[in-house]
Structures are given as structure tokens and as C-alpha cells.
Structure prediction request, 232 residues.
Amino acid sequence: MVVVMGLRAVLFDLGGTLIRTAHPADIIRRILGKHGIERSVEEIALAHKFAEENTPLEDYGLPYYEFWIKWNRRIFDRLGVKDENDFLARVLVDEWWDNAGIEVYPDAEGALIRLRGSEFKVGIITNAFKKDIEEILKRVEMPIKFNVFVGIDSVKKPKPSPEIFLHAIRMLGIRPNEAVYIGDDPEKDYIGATNAGLRAILVDRSLAYMDRKNMIKVRNLNEALDLILESL
Prediction:
């Protein structure tokens, strides 16, 4: 279980790890409802999943608005939303974070406070655009200054691609095995990080991944910090 020897950086996923938001389907339903369009959460969730699974890798190299408008059009096509499709696709981008109900996990705040006085470099690697990271951090108060932010537009590829992790490593001027990455998704976060040569910790707040015996797991971020700091 020891993950600390030679460690110089602690890197975090953002959504589902440091912050929680409403489910994307709830956010979309809320925004569409304001514009007189009603669809069930279940319909929207299926359409959102379709967009996620059918976004070609090359789209991640598109500019911010172009990427999300194209993504939103896929959702609207599945929902049968034809009127003002282009207008609503942009509205969804512009109004997203105001309707997301962003909150910092209480254990995230405590863990970051514990890191504040340490010599570790601290950063975020997330499958969001850097503009999204900026919008989120405008709306919440984080008790630490991050050394690095890496989003999908940094390398034009999302997690679990090794490139997104290695970009952060290069920015910090360290080796991959000198960083630990903490996230809540077994494939995108844990396996993605370890495939890039980083160490990893899986945050499993809901105990959904008890069967993942070969992974270092914790129930919250304070437990993750216990693992990291216990030998220092």
C-alpha cells in the first residue's frame, strides 16, 4: 500500500474527485426547460451517453466552442430537438456551469488543506477544457494554489490517454513515478495514470469498486492523504 517513497507531486481528477456537480442529464434538462423544451432525464442521459461514445478522437483538437456545440448537436439529434438546434447548442455551453450546482467535496477541502503546507507540487488533470477548469474555479473556493492544470485541449486527447498525464509531468519537471494521481474512475483515472507510469489511488466513496482487488482504493480523500503522508 505504500505510495510515498520518492513522491514529489500529488495530482487530482476534478469532477467526481475534488468537486461534485449535478448529473449532466439534470443540467441539460434544467437548461432546456428554461427554453420551453421538455425531455425526461432518462432520455437525456441516453442521448448524453451516445454523444460521449460517438465523439471521434480528432474532435478533441477542436476549439472550445466548436467542440461543445458539435457535442450538444449530437445530443439534440438523439432527442429529436430540431428547432433552434444551433442556438440551443451554444446556450447549453454558455449556461452550463451556472446550472451545474458545483460543490467541493468536504473531504477534498480537508485533504487540500493538509497538502497546503507540504513540499508536494499539486495539480489537476481532467477531461475538461482549460476554460471549463477556469469556470469551475471561479465558482468554488479551493484552499490551495495549484501548480498545474491540464485539460483535454492541452494535448488534444482525453484520459485514459497517457499523453494527458505525461503533459502534466513535463510541466512539473518531474518523472512519472514521482507523482501520484487520485481519481474516481478505474479506467480513465487509475489505469490511465498507471499506464503512463504514475502511481495511482482510486477514490471509491460509494464502494462501487470493491471487486477491483489489484487497485489501491480509499473511501475518501483524507484516507488518500493518510496513505501519502504516513511515511513522511
In short: DSSP finds ten helices and eight strands in the chain.
